[in-house]
Design a protein that fits this description.
246 residues; mainly alpha; 9 helices; cell membrane; Sulfate transporter CysZ; transport; CysZ/EI24
């Protein structure tokens, strides 16, 4: 049975083989540009952001500063992480969708059900990313607010970890599903049906996105790994769900 680590390893080796390497250069270039821009902004502004938000903490909570400071750090880093992820995938979505289609053909021998032209696919890919953004953003905002509620914020790191894994599962596993005409709602249901595979793969991708520089070259492999996960775990998930209800 294909697991998250195996899928990522096989996917990374696959995209750097002759025949697929040509499809990863533009996504990597997009990631490099966004990564460098975000890193520059964070380095120049992080201490100012930290001082500003810490200054908003009421005086009567000063005795909790030892706990509030690391929780704020985690929350702010999570916001930066999601911002970086959403921007890169919004810009690179057309390339990732095209890469996923090529990987599916080469790795599985199956042709995606998508019959749209290249330009239509690119436009629809951006639209799909906006749908993801509409789903993710309010939940991320709610979690950020929870991170500041005394008592509940003790669970914030765990909640951010689970949420990050779920977001990465949605982000990457959606590429092959979109190519095979799986609606966004149906995609989420399939991920829920295979919740362990979804969270384990999403969690692994979350970890590699935090590896400086190396993440730029591992992300295309994560797209390819998602195709392998789709083919083994999710392609028939809807049929299995229907059978269990019949």
């Amino acid at each position: 049975m294909l697991n998250a680590m195996t899928a990522l390893g096989q996917g990374t080796r696959l995209v750097y083989r002759k025949g697929l390497r040509r499809y990863i250069f533009l996504p990597i270039l997009v990631n490099v540009i966004v990564y460098a821009t975000m890193l520059s902004v964070v380095i120049n502004r992080f201490s100012g952001w930290l001082d500003h938000w810490i200054g908003l903490v009421p005086a009567w909570l000063d005795w909790l500063s030892w706990l509030i400071w690391p929780l704020f750090m985690i929350s702010l880093l999570a916001v930066i992480f999601f911002t970086f992820t959403l921007i890169t995938h919004l810009l690179a979505a057309p390339f990732y969708g095209f890469l996923a289609a090529k990987v599916e053909i080469q790795a599985t021998g199956r042709i995606p059900l998508d019959d749209r032209g290249l330009s239509k696919t690119a436009i629809d890919a951006v639209g799909r990313e906006l749908i993801k953004l509409a789903y993710i953003a309010p939940r991320a905002i709610a979690l950020f607010i929870v991170s500041w509620i005394p008592g509940l914020n003790l669970f914030a790191p765990l909640l951010w970890g689970l949420f990050s894994a779920w977001v990465m599962a949605i982000t990457y596993l959606d590429y092959p599903m979109d190519n095979n005409k799986v609606a966004f709602k149906d995609m989420r249901q399939r991920l829920s049906k295979r919740w362990w595979q979804s969270l384990s793969y999403g969690g692994l991708v979350t970890l590699i996105t935090w590896i400086p520089l190396a993440n730029l070259f591992l992300i295309p492999g994560a797209v390819a790994g998602a195709v392998l996960m789709w083919d083994q775990h999710y392609r028939t998930a809807r049929e299995l769900t229907h059978q269990s209800h019949s």
